[in-house]
Recover the amino acids of this structure.
């Protein structure tokens, strides 16, 4: 991997107000640290930094300040949450003679036949693979050709091809990509609506009232008949008594 130069200058004044003034003039605050050396506070051109990171996430930098060049890599970039622009950069010192652990992005090429022919879906489980190598041997990306993958086929980390001198640290049985079958939605059987017959509350009430009235009428008729019979019996008894007296 090529080494890219980035001009910088040492910051004498620190603080948020100084950082705001810096950004107004097209610069951002940065810090260089690592390898047991004292951190150095820098300022760099935002435009120059954007050009650098456009070449890849893991570029090797030669940061120039005070007439010297320090080999480093981008460790972290902080972005403004509203404007989505870089507001701060962290650089980490590295040695070209010492291996480092670093994450390399995965690049997918092709479209699986399980997707084009059978409607499957390519599920990307991992976006990066951790490797160990010398800074100059860091691959820009790790390519995965997926054209021949069918439904159920997958690629594991251990099957990835890496350049000479690069060691994969991600567990070899880690799933990187897999082609999954399409989801088939079962048709639900229509539910037959059972229309309940309306309750004839009024009719039942009327029938109930009529029944009650009928019962009351029968009772009244029975009572009247009983009284009539009793009266007749009394009259018969009185007649008999009168005949005896005569």
């Amino acid at each position: 991997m090529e080494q890219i130069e980035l001009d910088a200058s040492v910051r004498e004044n620190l603080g948020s107000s100084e950082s705001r003034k810096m950004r107004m003039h097209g610069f951002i605050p940065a810090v260089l640290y690592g390898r047991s050396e004292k951190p150095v506070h820098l300022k760099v051109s935002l435009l120059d930094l954007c050009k650098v990171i456009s070449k890849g996430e893991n570029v090797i930098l030669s940061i120039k300040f005070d007439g010297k060049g320090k080999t480093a890599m981008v460790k972290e970039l902080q972005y403004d949450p509203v404007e989505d622009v870089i507001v701060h950069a962290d650089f980490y010192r590295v040695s070209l003679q010492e291996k480092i652990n670093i994450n390399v992005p995965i690049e997918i090429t092709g479209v699986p036949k399980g997707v084009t022919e059978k409607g499957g879906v390519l599920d990307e489980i991992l976006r990066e693979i951790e490797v160990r190598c010398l800074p100059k041997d860091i691959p820009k990306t790790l390519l995965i050709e997926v054209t021949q993958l069918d439904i159920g086929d997958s690629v594991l980390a251990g099957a990835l091809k890496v350049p000479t001198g690069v060691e994969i640290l991600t567990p070899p049985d880690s799933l990187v990509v897999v082609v999954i079958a399409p989801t088939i939605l079962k048709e639900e059987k229509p539910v037959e609506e059972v229309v309940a017959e309306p309750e004839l509350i009024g009719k039942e009430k009327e029938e109930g009232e009529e029944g009650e009235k009928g019962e009351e009428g029968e009772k009244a008729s029975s009572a009247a008949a009983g009284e009539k019979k009793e009266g007749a019996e009394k009259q018969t008894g009185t007649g008999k008594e009168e005949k005896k007296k005569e």
In short: The two ends are 155 Å apart (CA to CA). The first helix runs from residue 16 to 24. Residues 108 and 144 are 5 Å apart (CA to CA). Helices lie at 16-24, 46-53, 113-116, 201-245.
